[in-house]
Amino acid sequence: MDTNVIIAIVAVVVIAALLAIGGWWFGKSRKSAVDKSTEAAKAKADARLATEKSVAQSAAASAENAEKTKETAESAATEVESATSSATPESPVATEPTPVGSAVTESATPAVETPEAAGTRMQRLKARLSKSGNPFGKALFNILAKDQLSEADWEDVEDTLLLADVGAEASEQLVEELRNDARIAGQSDPAEVRAALKDKLLKLVGIDTDRRLNANKEGANKPSVIIMVGVNGTGKTTTAGKLSRLLVSEGKQVMLGAADTFRAAAVEQLVIWSERVGVPIVKQKMGSDPASVAFDTLSSAKANGADVVIIDTAGRLHNKINLMNELTKIKNVMKKVVPDAPHEVLLVLDGSTGQNAFEQAKQFTAATEVNALAVTKLDGTAKGGVVIGISDHFRIPVKYIGLGEGIEDLQVFNRKEFVNSLFGE
User: Fold this and answer.
1) How many CA within 13 A on the CB side of residue 273?
2) How far apart are alpha carbons 377 and 401 in whole angstroms?
């Protein structure tokens, strides 16, 4: 055999042996590395589990300690309560009015809050009406106090009235009367102009209007019945509560009737007011006949000698025939208990809606009898003119005005002070 062949064979064998040995070593090293990695991962996992177990044990111990602390506190509180109840006599239970029919009559714990003075409420009215920047009475005065009034000035007067929600009809009438007033056309004395303007506004509001409630009139029968009507969102229920508060402050015994049986929130709100004012309330379950609530309220009021009954009804639109018929039914059922009831059908209007309030009054008075008005929300967004337009057009007395959502924000309407407030006085 050739030497070169032998050398080649040996070389191949050696290379093969080296490759085999190298493969074996590489495999062993890789296995060792994998084993080490696995052991490290396992050790890390064990450490994490141990930590979690320790934390869980600590949390369990803390919870157990907290539970023991709570039980100790409750035990101590129970002992204190027991000691207190044994030392304090029970409070007397308020006497409830005689229940009638299926109605639930609740007597609220008397906690009457005395309303603030009328002067303070009028100061708030002036502040509210002046929030719009310039009360429209001032704006009118500034125009009319000029030496010579041009046609453009008279147009500004009418525009000012319209923007103040006085209404087109009343604005036109007022401008015509102002044009013909010698105190304005003949001279420019500021005092004379202001007096003339106030006189005209007072005439529109109503000079000889009787704004007393029936309950405040001599020889009025008891109970005097007020039914609250209007559309949703005008503040009927709130006005009913505030009105009951004012009447209680005058020494009258008042009873509330929750005849808005379609809106749970209305009943709950009236119950809160009854508790706040300290007057009883008659209510039935939701969905009951509102006329039945009115009947039970008047019957209970007669049995318990109440002076005034205020019935809160559901909000309704004038074009909903079924709801207007329901209102008629409530009135007829009332007459079975008090023949001349209701004495006041009080339409509540939202003064901040401007001419929408005027339109509501127009449609509502056409659909049913209304003999009293309450205009609410005469704050910074209401300019007060709507009271003038409504008073002049419908000849229905505005008996109350609301100045906002506060408990003191309802007052008897005083025409002179209201007109003065339009001038910021």
Assistant:
1) 30
2) 8
User: Are residues 254 and 107 in contact, defined by beta-carbon separation less than 8 angstroms?
Assistant: no
Q: pLDDT tier at 268 (50, 70, 90 boundaries)?
A: very high
Distance spanning both ends of the chain, measured CA to CA: 138
Decide if 344 contacts 216 (C-beta within 8 A): no
Residue count of the chain: 425
> For residues 310 and 226, is the Cβ–Cβ distance under 8 A?
yes
What tokens were used for 142? 């500034």
243 closest CA partner among 312, 328, 339, 289:
312
In this prediction the pTM is 0.69
Q: How far is CA 420 from CA 121, 199, 370, in A?
A: 14, 11, 28
Cα–Cα distance, 276 to 62 (Å, whole number): 46
Q: What residue type is assigned to position 370 of the chain?
A: V
Q: Is the pLDDT of residue 100 over 50?
A: no
Residue 257 host element (H or E): strand 254-258
